[in-house]
Every structure is written in C-alpha cells, then in structure tokens.
Design brief:
CATH topology of the largest domain: At1g16640 B3 domain
Structural class: alpha+beta
Mean pLDDT: 66
Number of domains: 2
Strand content: 35-45%
Radius of gyration: 20 Å
Helix content: 10-25%
Distance between the termini: 14 Å
CATH class of the largest domain: Mainly Beta
Shape: elongated
CATH architecture of the largest domain: Beta Barrel
Number of helices: 7
Largest sheet: 8 strands, mixed
DNA sequence: AAGGTCAGGCAGGCGGCGTT
DNA sequence: AACGCCGCCTGCCTGACCTT
C-alpha cells in the first residue's frame, strides 16, 4: 500500500515533488523575445520538455510556448513575447515554474520586483475552464471540432468481489489521485485524446482503454501497434488488442506496456493522457503520453 | 517444470436513455 | 419522476502459450 506522503521511490515526503525552477526576467529576455530555461533544469528534466510547453497561471489561463534548442540550450520563444506583454513583465520580475506532469505542463507564478505576486488578469469568459493562449485558443465548452474526441476513463467502481470498504490510506490516495485526475482532464488538444486513471490491474498487467475510442481512431478489431511517447525523443512500442465480446467493445494494451509503466514510474492513481498524434496506418498509431502524478 | 505473459471470458455495478 | 433495459467498464479468473 502506497503511503500518503512518501512515494515508494524514496523521494521527499513533501508533496511538492514537481521539478521546479525560477527565472529572473532580464531586459535581454524581453528584447530578444525569448527566455532561456536554466541548463541545470534542462539537463535533469529533459523529459519534461517537449517541443512546446504549456504555462498555466494560478487562474488557470494556459499559454503554449514553443521551445527552441541550440547547442544544448533551450529557450521559451514563440509565444513568449505575447506572454510577457500580457502580464506586463519587466526587468527584475521573478518567474517560478513548477512542472505539473506530462506534456510539458508548468504552473507559472510571477512576482514583481517588490517581492509581491502580481494580480493575474481575470478573463470574463474564463468560467473556471482553462484557456489556451499563445497561438491556439480553444473554445471553452471543449467542443474541439468535428474530428476530435475526448474520452475520459475514471472512477474505478467499488470492488465487487474483494468486498470491504476503503481504508483510510486508500481514501487519502484517492484524494491525491483525484487531484492528478483533475489536472489531467484540464488537458486540451486539437488531437483526439483520452484520460485514464491508473488502476492496480493496469500497472500489474494490461492497460484497458476505451474500446470505442480505439475502434474509432485506430482499428476496429484485432491487434494494432502503438507507440507511446513521453517526449519527442523516447517512445515505447506496445500492442493493443481490440475486439468485441458479447457486443461489448474492449481494447487492452500489453506487450510493452508494463515496461513503459515501469520505466516511467507510472503508479496507481496517476492520471495518464493519451493524445493521438500520428495515425500511422490502419493498424498503427502514435500516442503522446502525459503522466500526471498522484 | 516453473513462472510469466497473453487472450478469452464471467459477473456485477453504474449511468444514459427511452418508456410509462 | 420512476422504472427498466442496455451499453460500458471494472476486477477477477482461467487456460494457452512462451520463456527461462
């Protein structure tokens, strides 16, 4: 049983496990239209950085900033100027970036030179739904378009055979994983994606996906090949079996899934976002996977 | 032979939806 | 609004197959 405050990898008991760094904004960053990510952070957390990052301010407003890489250095570039202009960033402002999970999501907090945090602009059309700024603006009702679908797999039902209620630790774990899941469901993309909360059986053996989702976007029946990408530089091939039993659709991921889960330290309660980024053929697809830690 | 993995299947709960 | 049907999803089991 996982402990509430300490993950079994022996990390700090502090809940703020997310990789975090800060940057002081200099005139040069504003003038050049780019902000360098600290090399130490890049070196240690390369997997947190895809080709673009999503910066979310405390109000939930989300910005997509494209990264540029050169000579081992990484900059926030395309979209940075708009970001800086929107928050009226000046020389000496302090930005704190906390990694929130897969897909390069960062919570960003902005402090002025007087040490106080800025008053973040509130959009009247926000309505509590994260907005995506900086190039792509999604409608707030999540209607992404005709060719886009979102499937959410959540809330394991109470066990029917093992019996008994949840223990306290399980309740705590559930609360933590619910936080992870809430973060995951705020993910937005123009690609089809689904959100899955990790169940014990998923980690132990096979991952189950929505049969209808897989049938619609990958293959209707049989075995198909999938690639799961954590970053643009690393991927894991897995197989997915799709079928229908008693008119019920099912899709199970195996043959590589356990290695993926193990190597990426996917735990029970984590929420994973599977974004379909490339439909290779009738029986293959590439998914970008974001892991939101419980 | 033993252990692990994969594939097929079962039982049961939840929720959407149509009907009354 | 209440009820029942049905689709979907889950945990779990079992047997076949593969690897060591």
């Amino acid at each position: 049983m996982a402990s509430l405050s300490r993950r079994d990898d022996g990390d700090s008991p502090l809940p703020a496990k997310a990789p975090t760094f800060f940057k002081i904004v200099l005139d040069k960053a504003l003038r050049d239209g780019r902000l360098e990510i600290p090399p130490a952070f890049v070196m240690k957390n390369e997997d947190c950085l895809a080709d673009s990052v999503f910066l979310k301010d405390p109000t939930g407003r989300v910005w997509r900033i494209e990264l540029t890489r050169r000579c081992g250095k990484v900059w926030l570039q395309k979209g940075w100027s708009e970001f800086a202009k929107f928050y009226s960033l000046n020389h000496g402002y302090l930005l704190v970036f906390s990694h929130e999970g897969g897909f390069s999501h960062f919570l960003v907090r902005i402090f002025q030179r007087n040490t106080l945090e800025i008053d973040y602009p509130i959009s009247s059309s926000h309505d509590g739904v994260p907005m995506l700024c900086g190039g792509i603006q999604l409608p707030k009702n999540e209607e992404h378009g005709d060719n886009v679908s979102v499937k959410i797999l959540d809330s394991p039902r109470p066990k029917t055979r093992s019996g008994g209620g949840m223990h306290t630790d399980e309740e705590k774990t559930t609360r933590l994983s619910d936080r992870a899941f809430s973060r995951a469901v705020s993910f937005k993309s123009s690609n089809p994606f689904l959100v899955v909360k990790m169940q014990p059986s998923y980690i132990a053996s096979q991952l189950r996906l929505s049969g209808s989702f897989v049938r619609r976007h990958i293959c209707a029946r049989g075995v198909c090949d999938m690639n799961l990408e954590i970053s643009s530089r690393r991927s894991w091939p897995v197989k997915c079996r799709v079928g229908v039993y008693r008119r019920k659709q099912y899709a199970r991921v195996y043959d590589g899934w356990k290695a993926f889960a193990r190597e990426n330290r996917v735990k029970v309660g984590d929420a994973c976002v599977f974004e379909l980024i490339n439909k290779g053929g009738t029986r293959s697809a590439t998914f970008k996977v974001g892991v939101y830690r419980a």
